[in-house]
Amino acid sequence: MSTTENSPASPQEPDSSRAAHRGRPLQTEFNDGRDYPRLGSFSFRRGTLTDNQENTWDENWPHLGRVLDENSVTADDQVIDLDDWFGRTGHDTIVEIGSGTGTSTAAMAPLETDHNIVAVEIYRPGLAKLLGSVVRGGITNIRMVKGDGVEVLQRMFAPGSLAGVRVYFPDPWPKARHHKRRIIQTGTLHLIASRLKPGGILHVATDHADYAEWIDELVNVEDDLEYLGWPDDPAVRDETVPVLTDRQIITKFEGKGLDKEHVIREYLWRRR
Fold first, then answer.
1. What average pLDDT does the chain have?
2. Is the pLDDT of residue 253 over 60?
3. CB 137 within 8 A of CB 110
4. Is the pLDDT of residue 125 over 80?
5. CATH 1.10.3720.10 is the classification of domain 16-271
6. What is the pLDDT of residue 13?
7. Other C-beta atoms lying within 10 Å of the C-beta of residue 152
8. Could you report the per-residue pLDDT of 49-95, keeping only the tens digit for each?
9. How many CB atoms lie within 10 A of CB 172?
10. pTM for this one?
11. Which residues of 242-266 are buried (b: 16+ CB within 10 A; e: fewer)?
């Protein structure tokens, strides 16, 4: 793998009409020999919002949120101007892929006000809960994107533009035939590396033992990422890693895993 590559090679768009007919979101064909998550035909969860959530959404989403454009004609022309969106310059940006309901996102952001935080989630009810937390808490450094994490990274963030990427408790897709849908793949690691600036940090956490074994096999696969492991001493992590790694709160999902005596595994990489 070349360390001079700025982004995955030769992406091509699938036929959008066929993709839509199959119920699949738009997916880039990277054609670089690496493995990327492949989403099959499925129905998105359609949770409803309360009247209050709808009102909050209508009032605040236009300036705090964006939706990934999946039109194959215009999808490539949507790289975010982060300084303009956050209304400030000179601040590093961290992207959280799969933010869920944003419990840890909203807990961490007030402790990292010097950073821009972008939460990426495909499900509107989760984003609505985070949006409510942002508005009620007066949190000014969080923005949100609705869309698939891989496509959002590929289409909405410029190469070398991020100080950090977080992937906390991604769907483990436990059935063997669904492993191709796991977000941690050789291609995704390469894509994330291309979006991180030198010294940028990738932080992954899982409580699923089989997924942890999967990740263990991939920790050194990407030449542009230096695997740091997980220093148990928070003081050592603070000296080694320039971004916040303490999630501050045990989410409902994480708590269920701990109740089942799941072991949480954490992984850190640094962009070379």
1. 89
2. yes
3. yes
4. yes
5. no
6. 39
7. 23
8. 999 999 999 999 999 999 999 887 787 789 999 999 999 999 999 99
9. 19
10. 0.89
11. ebbbebeeebeebeebeeeeeebbb
Q: What is the pLDDT of residues 163-206, one digit of tens each?
A: 999 999 999 999 999 999 999 999 999 999 999 999 999 999 99
- 147 to each of 33, 106, 225, 254, how far by Cα in Å? 24, 19, 25, 23
Contact call for residues 207 and 271 (beta carbons, < 8 A): no
DSSP result, 151-219 = HHHHHHS-TT-EEEEEEES-----SGGGGGG-S-SHHHHHHHHHHEEEEEEEEEEE--HHHHHHHHTTT
Q: What's the CA gap between 21 and 2, in Å, rounded?
A: 37
Q: Annotated catalytic sites, by residue?
A: 171
Which token pair is 193? 């590396």
Q: In residues, how long is the chain?
A: 272
Residues 6+ apart with CB under 8 A from 157: 79, 80, 95, 195
Bridge-based pairing state of the strands 116-121 and 196-206: unpaired
Give the gyration radius of the chain's Cα atoms: 18
* Token pair listed for 230: 């997980």
Q: Quick one: which of 157, 256, 164, 160 has its CA closest to 207? A: 256
**102 vs 155: CA distance, rounded Å:** 22
Q: Which residue type sits at 43?
A: S
What does the alpha-carbon distance between residue 25 and residue 42 come to, in Å, rounded to a whole number?
10
Left if phi > 0, otherwise alpha if psi is -120 to 50, otherwise beta: which for 121?
A: beta
